[in-house]
Amino acid sequence: MKLPKPRLSLALLSALLAGTVGAQWLPLGKDQVHDPQSPVIDILQAPGEALSQLPPDDAGNHVRWVDALRGGYIQPRSTIFDNTQVRLLDQDIVMRNTGSAAYVRFPHRVHTEWLDCSNCHDYLFQRKAGATRMNMLGILSGEACGRCHGAVAFPLTDCKRCHSVPADGQVGQ
Amino acid sequence: MKRVWGVAFALLLPAGAAAEYGDVVLNRYSDDAGMRPVVFPHWFHRMRFRCKVCHHELGFEMRVGANDVTMEGIIQGRYCGMCHNGDVAWSAENCDLCHSGLPGLKTHIVGGHRTGGPGRW
Lengths: 173, 121
Fold this sequence. Notes:
By secondary structure, chain A is mainly alpha-helical. Among the domains of chain A are: 50 residues, no CATH class; 71 residues, Cytochrome C3. Chain A contains 6 helices and 2 strands, in the order αααββααα. Chain A has a two-stranded antiparallel sheet with strand order 1-2. Chain B has a single domain, classed as Cytochrome C3. In chain B, 25% of the residues lie in helices and 7% in strands. Chain B has 5 helices and 3 strands, in the order αββααααβ. A 3-stranded antiparallel sheet of chain B has the order 2-1-3, with no helix packed on it. The interface between A and B is large, with 66 and 59 residues.
């Protein structure tokens, strides 16, 4: 009997990744970062206690942060000082230099709900669609989108959340 | 293109630490001064503050190790001390709440449960 030869595709990769990102919310004393001997190990909040109350996700903090904010599960402050201006922008940018992968949709709205323009402009990205040179290897190494995605925002293993627009001639992903 | 897949697969390998995604260990000075390293939990703070509060208003650069955080600065009301001043949050007297890390850890960010990320490069 001949087994089908596995072909590398976004679908296969995602399936593999889905199986590997399951580990979730260890107690602080077992996370290999906190000292189990610390006198406050039981005073600090365990991640699972708080994060299990929020909309679930399957990687990173296992929280769908966009939904947690939109749904009002959390109300994080936007400013500490009275006179800081809160800047928002509702504009999507579609990035098409994606080779065999689906196009990338970058939503300004979601980002500016959390971040200020200065967190990205202009040292990470130019203020002109298509002007910033990016590629996946750089992103996986922590450049451009990878500054946050892979460190604090949802990790890079979730290809389709960025590569969400079927490229011309592709029938979905 | 091939290299992209290579790196993507490297992400599959189990990472060493298993702490919560986004936890930052700060240990430029602590070990040497006989204190446990500091653990800063992103997940806990982002439930209360948007990124822009720390990374825009308060001026924390988004690069682990890039801010020269010192205890003197904190007590004078800078860095963590902009909030941990007994007003926005509990004050700097609660040493152990911040200095809770395993001695010997290097300054780094925990990138994903099993996902790598910049913290591993």
